[in-house]
Design goal:
The complex is a heterodimer. Chain A is built from 28 helices and 22 strands. In chain A, strand 3 and strand 4 form a beta hairpin. In chain A, helix 5 packs across helix 15 and helix 17 packs antiparallel against helix 27. By secondary structure, chain B is mainly alpha-helical. The chains are: A alpha+beta, B mainly alpha.
Chain lengths: 877, 98
């Protein structure tokens, strides 16, 4: 090889490598042929040697030992207050972050906890013209079962509400899944006790049997060992329990009762099945299954154009078929995680400030260690080890708490959206635990490395001199100003979400003594046995429900504690169904059919006696009559708010209004206003369009949903059991759903969110304030010597205070300013619903921050001012 | 046990197994044994790592050539790695013969 080239190449190697190997290496190279490969090999060797030099020397200190962790542990014990605050902050950040991540994971990527659960699929009819799914019919099921060989154990499921009575108890509404026996073969889960359903159970003449779930067995049957063989009553019909399913089994949603589905009793072509579910056959992929399903769907569209013309057969996952989440919720949950990570980062910034303050107080110790030969990397790793230990403890605490918070969150979601699907659970997955440890590492990096790098930066000699002279070499500079400003901005912003939730939780006035009313929904079960097939016409069942209601109302009126009974499809205090409307003589809303203020009202179907029973009779015009209900006249009552906002105060009697959507029907579409009633349960926070109400008289069978209001003496809740007893005595198939005092129909499902947000906000605020106080107090305390000098030079206390306050006050002002701007941007969507007290809450938080900072400045400054200048100088020197 | 590949450090150890050698001799020996020609950069990268790990040791230099010898730890390392390779080779051959 060329000697000059060899010299150049060897210079690429690190110095210490050259010192050791240069002579012999050059001697060898001189013997090597001058090829491209030989040169490239030498150059690559230089790169590798340099990397090894960096890894082996400069970053040698970036390995921490047990000694570092032991020292870290000692420091944590030595400063218990800081350790507790920092651990709470980290635990809080990681706990909340883990819960958010687990919920998003289960919503976005659910796993079915059944053997080979990922091969379970559902078949779904999709109408491309309506862009909506169509429930399958018996004919569809038979066609799919016979035609698909890529899916096995195809099962049909029908879900319905039934009145279930155990022993001598009164009937309670429960959800029952009527399933084909193949369902249990599909799920491959054997019964815990007894047996699952058999094909023989589906025969028309088979005895009535039911399989119950673990929760039903435990809660309703007291976990009786002899549960199998017992008889319960479903809609009054005795049914024998033949099996109990194991804990956690709730296929296909979260079901607890399974009865055999008698296919012959349901109409052949009516879309009456809830789900058709199967398992992909071994050796077949999802694509093959989809292709075959599409072919069968196309054949059905040709064979049955009257029902299947625009229908496509799709293969979807079980969670997609059940559709527990609204379409946008999973992605909302995912984006919520971004906020939670930011929150975690900010809290860790807070911890970093505390650790920095502590590290600064150890500045001399660190400088001495550096002077004794510890590299910067060693010092950084020492401080990082402390933060890592702290974050590991915080993560462990956070994960324990997360488990409970997750359970509480699921309970809240269940309260709002109905029973959770059986595949959602309260345990944290391995992925989430790894995520939590990732967060802990992030927290340790923020809380450990940032202060460590800051505290070890700058020339050691210069800092040693500064520290020795008592001046304090380190200050809370630009980085910490950003952290403090962000912290205060968040503190100011955090109450903003409470504004919306707070507005939602304010209860509107009922306008009548609602606390003396018990309300419940009435429904009637379908006929059982062979008669079931004759009870599929909704009108026939509605007629039966009306008869039972009238019997129940008569019976109730004879009860000593009952004053009267009435009904409506929606009760006052409930959120009404709103419709776009137009009033005669009022300029129309440009053909816009959306609900906007002054062109929107809730339409309620009521008992003609409704307003007399609730004690809020008509205040102008006439009341509705029974003949209005019987003849379905177009006479309506409106509330005072309707007169004020929709009719602009005009005389309402005789005025006409109609639904905007029925405009094309001409004269037939108009309703005539015959009277005005007081505003009942009108909320002042639903926007203008939510307060106008229109009432039409309807018979019980025509209300759609039949809700009763029973005026009682005393506590309405106490009457709930009696109501169920009376209903069961009239007809075991009559279900009383959710009886509760009328004011509680307004119970806000988001109260858990409120509690959660209040907790989240309070803890963050507390930690933020603790951090801001500690840092401000520390920064001021470090200026003791400077204050001493100023006082010695004749400075007035007020002047000293001004100098000391300047920096913290600028930081606070910046923080509050940024926070206020962001708050306004967030709240700007609908300020009409925001009350002054909502902003008051924000102002209180901002004021707390200012007070906290002021306190943090005053206490150490006063202490510094009390010290004699000579003492201050002597002590610090 | 993970099967060791014929890495440069292993080749250097194998070359020194029958006695001390300097760089050029090692390159020639390895070429004879395996047909692989190590570049000088690769060879000295391996030598530096082996020396750092205490698996080889420099001897007294003669002129500008620096001979190395394998240490007891190097011998153990070579035996382990070579044994694993031989065991793999044997298993593979048996499969071919079956």
């Amino acid at each position: 090889m060329n000697a000059a080239m060899i010299r150049r190449l060897v210079r690429l190697y690190p110095r210490n490598w050259r010192d050791r190997y240069e002579d012999e290496f050059v001697a060898l190279l001189e013997q090597q042929p001058a090829t491209f490969r030989a040169y490239a090999d030498v150059a690559l060797g230089a790169v590798i040697a340099r990397c090894r030099a960096i890894g082996g020397a400069k970053f040698e200190g970036l390995r921490f030992s047990m000694l570092d962790l032991r020292l870290g542990g000692r420091m944590l014990v030595k400063h218990p207050a800081l350790t507790v605050i920092a651990t709470i902050a980290v635990a809080f950040a990681i706990g909340v972050g883990s819960v958010g991540f687990e919920i998003a994971r289960q919503a976005l990527w659910p796993t079915i906890p059944l053997p080979d659960g990922n091969r379970i699929v559902a078949l779904q009819n999709w109408n491309v013209a309506d862009n909506a799914s169509v429930p399958p019919s018996r004919r569809d099921y038979a066609l799919w079962r016979d035609g698909l060989n890529t899916i096995t154990d195809l099962s049909a499921v029908e879900v319905e509400e039934r009145s279930i009575a155990v022993g001598a108890g009164i009937g309670q509404p429960e959800t029952v899944a009527n399933v084909t026996a193949s369902t249990f073969a599909l799920t491959r889960v054997p019964a815990l006790m007894g047996r699952t359903l058999l094909d023989a159970d589906q025969r028309g003449d088979a005895p009535e049997v039911v399989v119950v779930g673990y929760d039903f067995w435990k809660n309703k049957l007291d976990a009786a060992a002899d549960a199998v063989g017992r008889v319960i009553r479903i809609s009054g019909t005795p049914v024998t329990i033949v099996g109990v399913m194991p804990r956690g089994y709730g296929f296909p949603q979260r079901n607890d009762l399974w009865r055999p589905l008698h296919l012959e009793r349901i109409p052949e072509t009516a879309p009456s099945l809830r789900y058709v579910i199967g398992r992909m056959a071994p050796g077949h992929s999802r694509d093959e299954t989809r292709a075959q399903a599409a072919a069968i769907g196309a054949r059905a569209a040709t064979m049955f154009p009257e029902t299947n013309k625009n229908v496509r057969l799709q293969v979807v996952s079980l969670p997609d078929a059940v559709g527990f989440w609204d379409d946008d919720v999973p992605w909302l949950l995912a984006s919520m995680n971004v906020f939670l990570v930011l929150l975690a980062a900010l809290l860790c910034g807070n911890v970093a400030m505390l650790l920095f303050a502590r590290a600064v107080s150890r500045e001399r110790e660190l400088l001495v260690r550096a002077a004794l030969g510890a590299s910067r990397a060693r010092l950084i790793m020492q401080l990082f080890a402390e933060a890592l230990l702290l974050c590991a403890v915080g993560a462990a605490v956070g994960l324990v708490v997360a488990r409970f918070v997750l359970a509480a969150t699921w309970t809240m979601i269940e309260g709002k959206g109905g029973p959770l699907p059986f595949w959602l659970n309260t345990s944290l997955s391995t992925t989430t635990i790894l995520y939590a440890f990732g967060l802990a590492l992030l927290a340790a990096a923020i809380a450990g490395f940032v202060p460590a790098i800051k505290v070890t930066s700058g020339g050691g000699d210069r800092r040693l001199r500064a520290a020795s002279s008592g001046g304090g070499g380190l200050q809370f500079g630009g980085v910490w100003t950003v952290v403090i400003v962000a912290q205060i901005a968040l503190t100011t912003m955090l109450p903003v979400p409470l504004i919306g939730v707070g507005a939602g939780t304010r209860k509107p006035p009922a306008g009548f003594p609602a606390e003396t009313f018990l309300t419940a929904t009435l429904a009637i079960d379908r006929f059982d046995g062979a008669a079931a097939s004759g009870d599929t016409v909704a009108a026939a069942r509605a007629m039966r429900l009306e008869t039972r209601y009238r019997a129940l109302a008569d019976r109730l009126r004879q009860e000593p504690g009952v004053l009267d009974v009435t009904y409506a499809d929606q009760m006052p205090l409930m959120r009404l169904q709103w419709y776009a409307i137009e009033a005669e003589g009022i300029p129309p809303n440009d053909g816009n059919d959306h609900c906007i203020p002054n062109y929107c009202a809730g339409i309620v179907s009521v008992d003609p006696r409704f307003f007399d029973v609730v004690g809020a009779p008509v205040i102008r015009g006439n009341a509705l009559t029974t003949s209005d209900a019987e003849q379905k006249t177009r006479a309506v009552l409106v509330n005072e708010f309707f007169v004020k906002r929709v009719l602009h105060g005009r005389n309402p009697i005789g005025a006409r209004m109609r639904l905007a959507s029925t405009r094309d029907r001409g004269a037939e579409s108009w309703y005539q206003i015959v009277g005005v009633v007081p505003d009942l349960g009108v909320s002042d926070n639903e926007g203008d369009w939510g307060r106008a109400s229109v009432y039409q008289a309807r018979l019980p069978r025509e209300t759609g949903t039949l809700r009763v209001a029973i005026h009682v003496r005393g506590d309405p809740q106490r009457f709930a059991t009696r109501l169920r007893e009376l209903a069961q005595a009239i007809d075991p198939a009559l279900r009383v759903i959710d009886p509760k005092p009328l004011p509680r129909v307004r119970e806000n499902p988001s109260s858990f969110w409120l509690e959660l947000l209040v907790t989240l906000t309070s803890v963050t605020l507390m930690l933020s304030l603790a951090g801001v106080y500690a840092v401000t107090a520390f920064a001021v305390a470090r200026r003791t010597r400077e204050i001493g000098v100023r006082v010695a030079l004749g400075a007035q206390p007020l002047h000293v205070l001004t100098i000391v306050f300047k920096r913290p006050l600028v930081q606070i002002a910046l923080g509050i300013g940024v926070g206020a701007m962001l708050s306004l941007a967030l709240a700007n969507n609908d300020l009409s619903d925001v009350h002054l007290d909502d902003f008051g809450r924000s102002a209180v938080f901002a004021l707390s921050t200012i007070l906290c900072c002021a306190l943090a400045c005053i206490v150490p400054t006063r202490r510094a001012l009390r010290i004699q200048p000579t003492d201050a100088l002597r002590n610090e020197g | 046990m993970t099967l060791p590949v014929l890495s440069p450090p292993l080749l250097v150890l194998a070359s020194l197994a029958d006695g001390p050698k300097h760089g050029y001799a090692m390159i020639e020996d390895i070429k004879r044994m395996t047909g692989v020609t190590l570049g000088a950069g690769t060879l000295y990268g391996a030598i530096a790592r082996l020396e750092e790990s205490g698996l080889i040791q420099p001897l007294r230099p003669s002129e500008r050539r620096q001979p190395y010898r394998i240490t007891a730890a190097g011998n153990r390392e070579l035996r382990d790695k070579a044994g694993a390779t031989a065991s793999f080779a044997g298993a593979a051959l048996r499969k071919l013969e079956a």
